[in-house]
Amino acid sequence: MKVTKDIPDRWCKAYLSETRKQEAKKRKSDRDRRLFLAAEVLLNRSLEAVKANIMLPAAYTRNPYGKPYLLPPAELYVNWSHSGDSILCALSDREVGIDLQEMQKEPREALVARTLQPEELCFYQTLPSEQRKQVFYQYWTLKESYLKALGTGFHTSLASFYIEMDKSHPRIVQRAKGRLYHCRLLPMDDKYMAALCVEGEEREELDQVRIEAL
């Protein structure tokens, strides 16, 4: 979902909670305010599109690390991410995390060293220099989507897992036993990188609700 202008009034009434509207007023810039509001609009339009049995605008709570969960407890799990002027929302019947990054800056060596694990660095350093920026953002979004699916964010150490990239799909390798997760890179334009992570066994189908413009 691209956010290029204010939310239409008809959407504000149907897809925005009063709490979200009040919280939006605390955002410093118009762009941040639009993105903040549009995230909830996209969530509710997505729930409507899949015919979720939830009164809209949906109520949700957050765990101690900030991950949202629908109220009352529902059979659907949700997550969203925004970067630049775009937002992605994920709905799943299992724990889910999604991450979106605008690929503006070349990653500095210090950031690469902090972010990538030894197994990942071995693969990264074999790549031609012109491919490294894109692959770094692939790692970054995959890692964030996994941490968001876990529901802990960066409270879980990056050293506790790594990503195998030399497969048909990226694979999360956990250093200790835990719940199984699988991840995918999502098709985006050249400006963005995005990844989705879902709990459980890998499934071929990944249903997506696409709302292209606001």
User: Radius of gyration over alpha carbons?
Assistant: 18 Å
Q: Which superfamily, in CATH terms, is the homologous superfamily of the largest domain?
A: 4'-phosphopantetheinyl transferase domain
Highest CATH level, the class of the largest domain: Alpha Beta
**Main sheet: which strands, in order across?**
5-9-8
Query: What form results from the Cα inertia axes?
Result: globular
Low-confidence stretches: 209-214
| Number of H- or I-type helical stretches | 6
Alpha-beta classification: alpha+beta
Share of helix among residues? 25-40%
| % residues in beta strands | 15-25%
Topology, number of strands = 9
Major sheet attributes: 3 strands, antiparallel
First-residue to last-residue Cα separation: 7 Å
Overall residue-averaged pLDDT value: 89
CATH architecture of the largest domain: Alpha-Beta Complex
Structure description:
The chain is an alpha+beta fold and 214 residues long. The protein has two domains: 9-94, Alpha-Beta Complex (Ribosomal Protein L22, Chain A), CATH 3.90.470; 98-199, Ribosomal Protein L22, Chain A (Alpha-Beta Complex), CATH 3.90.470. 33% of the residues lie in helices and 23% in strands. The chain contains six helices and nine strands. The strands form four sheets. The protein has a three-stranded antiparallel beta sheet with strand order 5-9-8, covered by helices on one side. A two-stranded antiparallel ribbon has the order 1-2. The chain has a two-stranded antiparallel ribbon with strand order 3-4. The longest helix has 22 residues, at 129-150.
